[in-house]
Write a structure and sequence with these properties.
With 392 residues, this protein is α+β, with helices and mostly antiparallel strands. It has 2 domains: 182 residues, no CATH class; 192 residues, no CATH class. It is built from 13 helices and 11 strands. Helix 2 packs antiparallel against helix 9.
Length: 392
């Protein structure tokens, strides 16, 4: 008997008892669907994280300088002079002064938002875009002018659809003029990147009562010069503090690499958990095939008496097991793809099912079916035809 005939017999066997066949395939269906859904969700989460990193600039370098006390300090002017001196590798630099949560008022409206102090290069360093108006300029920082740029969430909450540019708001009781509004980045929701207000860092140091700036953001000239820029920054700070414990510098590329490592490990863990369903499905197939061998003992005896070889008998049952797991795999793929898109929409996340995940899950399901179907098939092929014919 060839493979084609074995496949036809396998299909007839499956269709003769649809409910039992479906229950046999259920473990495979759930396992394949689980693998596809979990891989799709992790990939979607990874894409979202990468997009957030890229929106801040892939050549971003962040430096934190808690310092060591004493006379060893570095000022914003020192940092900016260093950046200008190394303009072949460093594009822009901005101090970053975290003021924290502030109360912003406009007429009767009042909200709490996060406030950060920057210079005029923050827009280039962090790759932010202006919806209308302008960003902070050198004169705002130099003269400590009370101008500010607000995120889209703040603009919507305070001004709704009114003209924003030129309006005066109260920031912790002080009057500031809104000179610009940033483009929406994260759907203008509370606590997002759109829930921010930016003021000159020279004013932020006064509000935060911390005249020492301990955080800076650099942008390398190009993606290719990130490593050189990092090396120069580390060498410059080491010359000042004589200790690597006095500062920390890291770039987006390193952060992305760590994210990729973490998501890769998470994917392996989740796929391993989902694969348990495939293993259970394989055990289910083996149990049903053993029952099938018992039920069809007389059939096996008749076929052997008519000249069927042990290979013919074994191939029939192996093909039947592989067919069962294949059909389960196809149903699992359909369920997994549908569930991936549904969960992606519910979580507002792009979840495009991975072709590689689908291929691997289906291949494993077929392999499991054949592996767990081998033992019942081997048992069937070794039946004595006389004993099989006598079986009632």
């Amino acid at each position: 008997m060839d493979i084609k005939q074995s496949f036809i017999l396998a299909v007839k066997s499956l269709t003769s008892s649809k409910l039992r066949s479906f229950l046999t395939m259920l473990g495979i269906i759930i396992g394949v669907a689980s693998v596809i859904v979990l891989v799709s969700l992790v990939d979607g989460m990874k894409k979202n994280i990468v997009q957030q990193f890229e929106s801040m600039g892939t050549n971003l370098i962040t430096v934190s300088i808690p310092g060591r006390g004493g006379n060893r300090t570095v000022t914003p002017n020192d940092i900016m002079a260093f950046a200008e001196k190394n303009s072949d590798t460093i594009g822009y630099v901005t101090p970053s002064v975290t003021v924290g949560t502030v109360t912003v008022k406009y007429q009767t409206e009042s909200i709490s938002t996060n406030c950060t102090g920057t210079n005029e290069f923050y827009r280039e360093v962090r790759n932010v875009k202006i919806a209308y108006g302008r960003y902070l300029e050198f004169v705002d920082v130099d003269r400590r002018q009370k101008n500010c740029v607000i995120g889209s969430y703040v603009a919507n909450k305070l001004f709704n659809s009114q003209q924003v540019q030129g309006r005066e708001i109260k920031l912790n009781g002080d009057t500031y003029t809104v000179v610009g509004v940033l483009e929406e980045k994260q759907s203008s929701v509370e606590g997002s990147e759109d829930d921010r207000i930016y003021i000159p860092y020279s004013l932020a140091t006064l509000i935060s009562r911390n005249r020492m700036v301990s955080s800076y953001s650099f942008s390398a000239k190009t993606k290719e010069t990130v490593s050189d820029a990092m090396e120069k920054i580390n060498n410059y700070l080491f010359e000042i503090f004589s200790s690597e414990d006095a500062y920390r510098a890291y770039n987006q590329a390193d952060s992305l690499e760590r994210v990729n490592e973490m998501t890769g490990q998470m994917t392996l863990l989740l796929v391993g958990i989902a694969a348990i369903s495939l293993l259970v499905g394989g055990i289910g197939i083996m149990n049903i095939m053993l029952v099938s061998v018992t039920e069809r003992t007389r059939e096996i005896g008749i076929r052997k008496a008519l000249g069927a070889t042990p290979w013919d008998i074994m191939s029939q049952f192996v093909v039947e097991a592989a067919t069962t797991s294949s059909f389960g795999g196809f149903l699992g793929i359909a369920l997994g793809v549908g569930a991936s898109y549904l969960m992606g929409n519910l979580m507002k996340m792009a979840t495009d099912p991975s072709f590689m995940a689908i291929l691997i899950a289906f291949s494993v399901s077929v392999g499991i079916g054949m592996t767990f179907g081998y033992f019942p098939a081997k048992k069937a092929s070794k039946l004595n035809p006389i004993d099989a014919l006598r079986y009632d």
